[in-house]
From TrEMBL:
<dbReference type="InterPro" id="IPR014746">
    <property type="entry name" value="Gln_synth/guanido_kin_cat_dom"/>
</dbReference>
<dbReference type="InterPro" id="IPR008146">
    <property type="entry name" value="Gln_synth_cat_dom"/>
</dbReference>
<dbReference type="InterPro" id="IPR022147">
    <property type="entry name" value="GSIII_N"/>
</dbReference>
<feature type="domain" description="GS beta-grasp">
    <location>
        <begin position="84"/>
        <end position="173"/>
    </location>
</feature>
<dbReference type="InterPro" id="IPR040577">
    <property type="entry name" value="Gln-synt_C"/>
</dbReference>
<comment type="similarity">
    <text>Belongs to the glutamine synthetase family.</text>
</comment>
<protein>
    <submittedName>
        <fullName>Glutamine synthetase type III</fullName>
    </submittedName>
</protein>
<dbReference type="Pfam" id="PF18318">
    <property type="entry name" value="Gln-synt_C-ter"/>
</dbReference>
<dbReference type="InterPro" id="IPR008147">
    <property type="entry name" value="Gln_synt_N"/>
</dbReference>
<feature type="domain" description="GS catalytic">
    <location>
        <begin position="178"/>
        <end position="615"/>
    </location>
</feature>
<dbReference type="InterPro" id="IPR027303">
    <property type="entry name" value="Gln_synth_gly_rich_site"/>
</dbReference>
<dbReference type="Pfam" id="PF00120">
    <property type="entry name" value="Gln-synt_C"/>
</dbReference>
<dbReference type="InterPro" id="IPR052725">
    <property type="entry name" value="GS_Type-3"/>
</dbReference>
<dbReference type="GO" id="GO:0004356">
    <property type="term" value="F:glutamine synthetase activity"/>
</dbReference>
<dbReference type="GO" id="GO:0006542">
    <property type="term" value="P:glutamine biosynthetic process"/>
</dbReference>
<dbReference type="Pfam" id="PF12437">
    <property type="entry name" value="GSIII_N"/>
</dbReference>
Amino acid sequence: MPNMRFEALKKSLRREHTQIEEMGKRSELFGQQVFNEEKMLQFLTREAFDNVKSASFQGSKIDRKIADQVAEGMKAWALSMGATHYTHWFQPLTGATAEKHDAFFDIISDGRAMEKFGGSQLVQQEPDASSFPSGGIRNTFEARGYTAWDPTSPAFIYKTTLCIPTIFVAYTGEALDNKAPLLRALHAMDEAATGVAQYFDKNVRKVHATLGWEQEYFLVDKELARSRPDLVMTGRTLVGNPAAKGQQLDDHYFGVIPPRVLSFMSDLEKQSVKLGIPVKTRHNEVAPNQFELAPVFEEANLSVDHNLLLMDVMEEIADRHSFMVLFHEKPFAGINGSGKHNNWSLATDTGVNLLSPGSTPMKNLQFLTFFVNTIKAVDTYEELLRSSIASASNDHRLGANEAPPSILSIFIGKQLSDVLDELEGVSKGKLSPEEKTELKLNVVGKIPEILLDNTDRNRTSPFAFTGNKFEMRGVGAKMNCAKPMTVLNTIVAKQLKQFKKEVDALIDKKKLKKDEAVFNILREYIKSSKRIRFEGDGYGMQWQEEARRRKLSNNKNTPEALQVLTSKESVALFKEMDVMNEVELRAHQEVELAAYVMHIQIEGRILGEMIYTHILPAAIRYQNLLLENINNLKEVYGAAHKKVAESQLNILEQIGEHVVAVKKLTDEMIEARKSANSLATINKKAQAYCNNVKPYFDSIRSHSDKLEKLIADDLWPFAKYRELLFAK
Ligand code: ADP
Ligand code: MG
């Protein structure tokens, strides 16, 4: 059989990049394939339009008659756009998106065909999606799953299918997806934050969380990627000797984008813009063949949908340009992996960013209120927030000196640290007129509208304030942002609710003025949440020790990190905020643990297969070549052959050692897997995979990589790092 690698190399060398077609004005293409307000006004009755708007603004229900009207309008629009199918588009707990297409086409009673799509098809579906993970929620036969329309995220046409964003819930109402808990968390946030925002502006009716993600990814030549079973099956390379050149020259970062990649990006952006994804920036990232794409921020639920849609579109467009796109958090050893920073803030319906300092002391007090409450929330629930970014693939990144550590901390910069230090000195109870003036002029008043030293950001911080938003940096590139966004919004909502209670109590019982009460509570929060603030180097060992002294959690792997999800405090929190009940939390935890086990299990299987059926045979073939040569030399030189064959004998010996070692370790790994599989609970299994199976991967890899260095290049079966990473 011809060597896959060389076939692939031949193909990849012959590639020419497709010409870039200029996309014209983005603003004209924007949202072409989205059933947005403009289309709704055109295709819906005024009554239907108003109902959809108020459902999306206030979460009000849409009755069946109106749903029928909306469905009729949506169908007319979709057919006019050439759509043939519709689907409820949802986010099962696998982390990806799912869809099941139905044709609009239907047969009516007299045998004629018609294009059918009514309110009932729009509002609710029962996909036979019983194979999605449910963590036991759907064990019983009656526990069917339903998808239900989310009118806050507009329908869109992808290829020829009308996609309707939906939640996925069990018959009993429990969430089977990542969207339902997110929507509940965002609702809790709206309620809590609106209450607090009204201290400062009575006109605020609604607060929504905003999210701007930054998607990092790798592009690898499709043919080369396909020659590697590990990339195809696990999304990362399980073996591979680092290329002579990695990212040490920093010559890729923000460099000129290679032409083939640029035509991929243009194509991608054109598609994205039509789908209403407001893509904005693109650039090379730190590692070779690594890139980043960021949109303009949006309301968090819509932004999550757009990120998931974008990842689907990227896979398709990459394929069209003969690339494979890798979202795995650590596809290659020795160079940076990929993350997805989540920039987060809160915005009012009056157009104010609540985390943006303003031009008046009152606006700044509002800013400080939301700022300090966020800090306090992260301090109280740091371990829970950490758990929301736990996954088998993200374990490779967190704490590996390229992404933030698994310890949560907050960076706010010197200017704001100084402000908080001053606020700590505010008097208890009523404030004298002098103190008030002093606070207004010299403390709160001094917060500049633009925070200068935040340009000097601490890149090692997992949760950094960057001028007018917080940036959560530990989120993995592959992850559904709904998970961290659900936790972050829940904990901040809970904190704001608590804050309002305390402030109101001071106003009612202690007769303090509103601003006095706010200052009093903020002072206490600043004092009690100090341990979470850290301005230093988050990558250093010193911080690990310091964090331990501060009693911050440091859960280094997924099975450990997930435990807190079902702690008494977490259960109480999610219940109080109406985000998840205990059954859902247990189910979600179980699904995450099972996903962890399966990922490591698949990696173990592929690694075993690669060693036994590719790497050992290549090593043995080369051994035979060497032996043949040594034997031939012996025939010619007799006993003197040892001298002329010295190098061959030495290489033969080295190969022999690695062959023995790599096989032994692989066999041990397979045994460890077997005993992990025999454990009774998913928790024990996950821990066994983490502690007893996974550690073998690195040692197996190290022998395999040494073999790669020794064996003749033409015998090596897998595309090498330099080929995967430097093919342009
Ligand atoms: P970087 O972190 O790479 O320096 P920027 O500061 O330019 O990037 O912003 C990164 C992201 O922050 C963008 O995706 C942008 O949409 C998002 N962003 C900006 N303002 C907000 C906000 N108020 N809420 C949420 N995200 C925001
Ligand atoms: Mg960033």
